[in-house]
Amino acid sequence: MAIITAYWGLDGMIVLTTLIIAAYLYMTRKFNYWKKRDVSVALPPIPFLGNFADCLLLKKSPGNFLQELYIQGKGSPYIGFYILDKPALLIRDRQLVKMVLVKDFNYFADRYASPDIVNDRLGSANLFLIKNPAWKILRTKLTPFFTSGKMKKIFELMLECGKDLDTYLESLKLGDNEKEIDIKDITATYATDIIGTAAYGFNVNSLNNPDAEFRKHGRTIFNFNIIRGVEFIAIFFLPSVVKMIGAKMFGKKNSDFLRGVFWEIISQRVKSGGKRNDLIDILIELRNTYGDQDMGGFKFDGDDLLAQASIFFTAGFETSSSTMSFTLYEIAMNPEIQDRLRKEILDALDETDGKITYDMIVSLPYLDMVVSETLRMYPPLPFLDRVTMDAYKLPNFDLKLEKGTPIYISMSGMHYDPEYFPDPHKFDPERFTEENKRNRPSNVYFPFGEGPRVCIGTRMGLLQTKLGIVTMLRKYEFLPSEKTLIPMVLNPKAFLTTPLNDGLYLNIRRDICVCLLKLLTVLSFRHQSTSFSTKSFFTGTALLAEAGQQVAVT
Question: Among the four 111, 180, 240, 471, which has the fewest Cβ within 10 Å?
């Protein structure tokens, strides 16, 4: 005889129905949370999934989801939503953004993202994701590596990678022909080589060897397939399930590789006693000085130390390569911008006798404007996450946030807000003239974050990005190909801003203007001419183009 009724089958149905109802009531118990606080919610939450269904099913990237919330909340300073049953808040008002990121930073010093602190130390102990008080100590100790003086020294190492990039492009033997290339892969290999040599004293050489271990594992870390997509979603939005599913920031195999290779580099440096003034030297010095001290659950030793090398490697190559590839994509779509940028580069090279220098790279105003506009349209991480570390009353608003509330800021939402950036889908570097920057409201543009937790590697990232663009544009021009995404389509499985299928194809061809420049320079020397310049050269080539003449120099 059954327990509840006379039939076991009926008992089973009753128990199952009871469990479903109990689960439903449990997962919807907080769905009035924001209504009780008079906070608007974009869409009614779905039982068990909240407002996060499309992201969980990898149909929509978190960046796009938060940008859509930003748009739907127009006119409101903030908008509530639910990650499963967890109430979260999207901040829209730029003054509140300043409060969260800068003025009241102590209330929001930690990110909501939380890797497994026990089983994923490479993910949880790195500077990007580590919690306070360890974050503040770690940030202070690592800052000396990223000073402008240090960057000038590192730039000399970057130049060697720039030469390798130039050699690689020369090996394509374009002549006056076009060739389709995956520019995202090329810029990623270049950036990988720079990070390897500049930060770790390691010759990756992935431009000549695309199957190099560093490059291979770099690809898989940001290969946004279903498994990696779920891992990143869990870490940044569902920390309560991270341990349950065994999610790792870099993936298990990649974590094992990074752990092994960086520990070997450190051991070899200690054994040799050599000094390169790079990140490895700083990590060794920190281990020697503080290795036996517990700093808020963090030690400068073991995986905690290796975590810093791992995050600077992965973040350093991915963000820079994305910015370079999106820049080349946009100027391929806008040839007049490409021509103006190349003219600025060639004029600057004319002043330095063809030598690329640190001062030249950082002093090109139009290049800075172009890169800034790329970062507006394609911020590498399109959102910022924070968590309230204590109860907090929003200034000028009747809303008190409870401790532990996830806070999100849609960087792409603000970057595409027509109130701040008219015609936001147009690629327009003129937004970043000095006058336009002064006239724009503050706290609406922050591609590297803002406040004390702003990206520590901003200076280095921009430097290697600009060097790569200068190296390529001084000899080559880029055009759309048959595989070029028009308009751009982003990968819905990625938490970073990444093209669909992770590739970005363009046509590359040798710039005929540069070929003519070389020829005319030789001729000018033969005739002992001293009046030749790129300015007069561009005037001449413009007349040639107007006359419809085609010149091929190989």
Answer: 240
* Angstrom distance (rounded) from CA 268 to CA 265: 5
Residue 44: asked if its preceding bond is cis (omega within 30°), the reply is no
- What are the tens digits of pLDDT across the range 464-494? 999 999 999 999 999 999 999 999 999 998 9
What tokens does 468 get?
């790569």
Q: Distance (Å, rounded) from C-alpha 306 to C-alpha 472?
A: 33
Rounded to 5 degrees, what angle do the CA atoms 460, 462, 467 make? Answer: 95
Q: Residue 185 is which amino acid?
A: D
By C-alpha distance, which of 252, 162, 253, 161 is closest to 202? 161
Q: 516: pLDDT confidence band, cut at 50, 70 and 90?
A: low
Please enumerate in sequence order all residues whose Cβ is within 8 A of that of 130, keeping only pairs 6 or more positions apart, or say none: 124, 138, 298, 307
Which residues does residue 400 pair with via DSSP β-bridges, in sequence order? Answer: 393
Q: Which of 69, 74, 65, 103 is nearest to 442 (CA)?
A: 103
Determine contact, residues 184/499, Cβ cutoff 8 Å.
yes
For 350-363, the three-class secondary structure string (H helix, E strand, C coil) is HHCCCCCCHHHHHC
Q: How far, in Å, CA of 463 to CA of 151, rounded?
A: 8
pLDDT tens for 413-463 read 999 999 999 999 999 999 999 999 999 999 999 999 999 999 999 999 999
Distance CA(452)–CA(442), nearest Å, equals 16
Q: How far apart are CA 220 and CA 322, in angstroms?
A: 15
CB half-sphere exposure, 538, CA atoms < 13 A? 13
In whole angstroms, give the CA distance from residue 97 to residue 378. Answer: 20
∠ CA 367-371-375, rounded to 5°? 170
Say if residues 454 and 98 touch (Cβ distance below 8 Å): no
User: What sign results for the dihedral spanned by CA atoms 87, 409, 461, 322?
Assistant: positive
3-class DSSP assignment, residue 235 = helix
C-beta separation of 201 from 269 below 8 A: yes
Sign of the CA dihedral with 144 first, then 145, 146, and 150 last: positive
Tokens 């090398």 label which residue?
Answer: 309
N-to-C CA span, the chain: 93
Q: Which residues contact 536 (CB under 8 A, 6 or more apart)?
A: none
Residue with more model confidence, 529 or 225: 225
Q: What is the pLDDT of residue 349?
A: 96
Q: Quick one: which of 516, 504, 534, 513 has its CA closest to 333?
A: 504
Q: State pTM to two decimals.
A: 0.90
